[in-house]
Amino acid sequence: MAEFSHTSKRQKTYYFHEEWEKDFCFTNVNDKCVCLICGVSLAVGKKCNVERHFTKVHSNFCRDFPAGTNLRREKVKELKTALQKQQALFTTPLKKSTVSTEASFKVAQILTKHKKAFTDGGVIKEAMTAVAESLFQDYKNKTEILSAIASVQLGANTVARRVCALSVDAMRQLESDLNRCSWFSLQCDESVHSSDTAQLAVFTRMAFHDFSTKEEFLTLLPLKTTTKGVDIYNAVKEYLVEKKVPIEKVVSITTDGAAAMTGRHVGFIAHCKADPDFPKCLNYHCIIHQQAICGKVLGFDHVMTPVVIIINSIRAKAKQHRSFKLFLEECSAEYGDLLLHTEVRWLSRA
Q1: Residues 177/214, Cβ–Cβ less than 8 Å
Q2: Which positions of the chain have pLDDT values less than 50?
C-alpha cells in the first residue's frame, strides 16, 4: 500500500515569480531559475532555494547595490542584457546555419524542377554574389549579405544530397496521402526507353474526405525481361505491398489498349480481378487511345489526309515555315505555329 501511494504521488510544479528578478537577481530561462550574477541554474525553482543561494553566495551584492534603489535596478538590467548576449552568441550561428541549409534546399528544388545539372549550383551562387555586390553596394550590411550568400552550400555533391532528401520527403508525403485518402485510382502506361528498357509508369489520383482530389506520379517500374500481363501485374503488386499501399482503396484502373493490359484471360486487368487482395474495381481505357480509335472508326480520312499533307508541306521547307509564322502574327492568330505530323497519337490528332 505504501509503495502504491509513493508511485501515484503527483509531482509538484513550481513557477517563476517576476519579483525574484529584482529581489534575488534570478531570471527564467527555459523554465529554469538562472542566477544573473554567476549563471547557476537551480534544479527546483522554489523561493527558499533562490533566496538561500542569493544570501549565501552573493551576500555582498546587497551592500554594493541596496534593494529598491535605481543603482540596483540598473545593475540587474545590465546583468540580464549580458546574459541575453551570451545566449545569442550560441543561438545566432545555429539560426544562420539553418537558414543557409533551407536556402540550399530551395536552390536544389529549382534546379531539379528545371532539369538542370547539379553542378549548376555553383553557377547560381556565383551569380547571386555578383548581383548582391551591385545591388547592395551602398548598404551598410553589404558584408553580412555577401557572407550569408557565401555560407549557402551549393556544391554538386551537396545539391545531390539535397535532391535525394527532397525525393524521400516527397515519397513520404505521397505514402501519407495514400493512407489518408478515402479512395484512389491507378493509371498504368508501359513504354520502351531509348535504351530498349521497358518501363511501366504508374500514376494515381486520390479523393479525400473533404471531396478534394490530388493527382500524383506514383512510380516508374522497370520490366527487365518480358512485358506480359503477369509481369506487369507482379511488378505493380510487389511495389504496392512493399510500400504498404492500402490496395483495398483502389476503385479504378486505367490502361492503354495493349493486349498485355486488357487481355481477357492473361492481361494485367484479368490478373488484378483474379487477385483477392484487389477489390472489385472499374477498368477504363486511356482517353487518348479512345480518341485515336474513334478517329479511325468514324473515318475522317477525307478531312485529316489533306490537312496533314498541307501541314507537312509548310513545315518541310524553312522559307515557307517562316512566312507562315509571320502570316499568323499579322493575323493575331491564337496559335503561332503548326505541329509537324507524327504517328504519335496525341500529336497526330492535336
Answers
A1: yes
A2: 1-5, 7-8, 344-350
Asked if 320 and 340 touch (Cβ cutoff 8 Å), the reply is: no
* Identity at 204, one-letter amino acid code: T
User: For the chain, percent helix, then strand, then coil, each to nearest 5?
Assistant: 55, 15, 30
Helix (H) / strand (E) element for 285: namely strand 282-285
* Amino acid making up residue 217: F
Say if CB 247 and CB 240 are below 8 A apart: yes
Q: Which of 195, 202, 190, 207 is nearest to 289 (CA)?
A: 190
- pLDDT for 15 equals 62
CA distance 283 to 131: 55
d(CA 343, CA 349): 9
**Contact, 25 vs 54, CB < 8 A?**
yes
**Of all helices (H) and strands (E), which one includes residue 240?**
helix 229-242
Domains and CATH numbers, the chain: 8-88 (no CATH), 97-180 (no CATH), 182-285 (3.30.420), 295-348 (no CATH)
Residue of 279, 281, 273, 249 whose CA lies nearest to 184? 249
Sheet holding 282-285, edge to edge: 213-223, 198-207, 183-192, 250-255, 282-285
- Count CA atoms closer than 13 A to 276's CA, side-chain side: 0
0.90 surpassed by pTM: no
